[in-house]
Each structure stands twice: as structure tokens, then as C-alpha cells.
């Protein structure tokens, strides 16, 4: 005795089917070995050293060092965001944004502001007593601020080359 299979005629409400098992973001494992990736990682590390070295001291009496902290933290956060965008390939998925122009503007403004910041940081070292904790930290942060400036200048150059090539292709 075989029973006929029961077929349900009742419909379930239409629910959109979402594919949540795959990620839409791709991890570009080769980005960290490119010149652009290495410079971005160096900007993150050196920029973090700038604000950590100043943040560990009593810098509040000097408004110049408050400016250094502002620029260092602002560009550190923005650089981390840009690194994540490039690492995950978001720049390839959002094609409406002119990424080459955006990168060029970001890196050029970071270079100029970090150059001013590094000079202000270096001039502020004289406000501390030589050999003390503040002096050593501020001197080290000035050194890393200049290194960060060089990294941003290198990224500006790479961004300019990419921007120029994209303009020639149009």
C-alpha cells in the first residue's frame, strides 16, 4: 500500500533570498607586498608612534603639540580606513568614486599638513628639559613625524602617477 505523496498547495509569503554564506569583500593578500601597501603600512606605524610618543607626556600646556596630536590622530584614522578600503578591494567595487583623484588629494594634503606638523613638533622639543622624559619622547616623535611625512610624500608620488595614467586612458 503506497500512499500518495502529499503536495502542499499553500504558499509561503515571498521572502527575498539573501546569500549570506559568501562575502562580497575580497581580501587582496598581495596588496601588502606592493609599494602602495608598504607605504600605507609605514604611514600607519610611524603615525601611530608620533601620537603615542606625544600622548604619553604632559603636552597640554603647549598648544603646538595639541595641533600635532590632532593632525597625527586624524591622518592615522583616515590612513587606516584607506588601507582597509584597498585591502578589501572596496575601491574596485565602488566605481563611481574617482579613487585616483581621491587618493592624490588625500596624500598631498597629508604630506603638506604632516610637514608643518613635523616642523612644529621639532620646534616644540626646545620647550622641554634635555634628558627628561618629555624631551626624549618629543624628539622621537619629531623624528617619526618626518619619517611619516616622507611616506606620505612617496604615496603622493604614486597617487600622482596613478592619477596621470587614469587621465591619459580617458
Question: Could you explain how this protein is built, in words?
Answer:
It is built from five helices and no strands. By secondary structure, it is an all-alpha fold. It has one domain.
Shape: elongated
Q: Beta-sheet strand percentage?
A: under 5%
Question: Taking Cα atoms only, what radius of gyration do you get, to the nearest Å?
Answer: 25 Å
Q: What is the count of structural domains? A: 1
Structural class: mainly alpha
Low-confidence stretches: none
Number of helices: 5
Helical proportion? 55-70%
Order of helices and strands: HHHHH
Number of strands: 0
Intertermini distance: 74 Å
Mean pLDDT: 87
What does the largest sheet look like?
Answer: none
Subcellular location: Membrane
Protein name: MARVEL domain-containing protein
Domain MARVEL: 31-164
Organism: Amphiprion ocellaris
Quick summary:
This protein is 67% helix and 0% strand. The chain has helices spanning 35-55, 63-88, 90-93, 99-124, 133-169. It is found in: Membrane.
Offer a few descriptive terms:
170 residues, 67% helix, transmembrane, MARVEL-CKLF_proteins
Structural topology:
Layout: H1 35-55, H2 63-88, H3 90-93, H4 99-124, H5 133-169
Helix pairs in contact: 1-2, 1-5, 2-4, 4-5
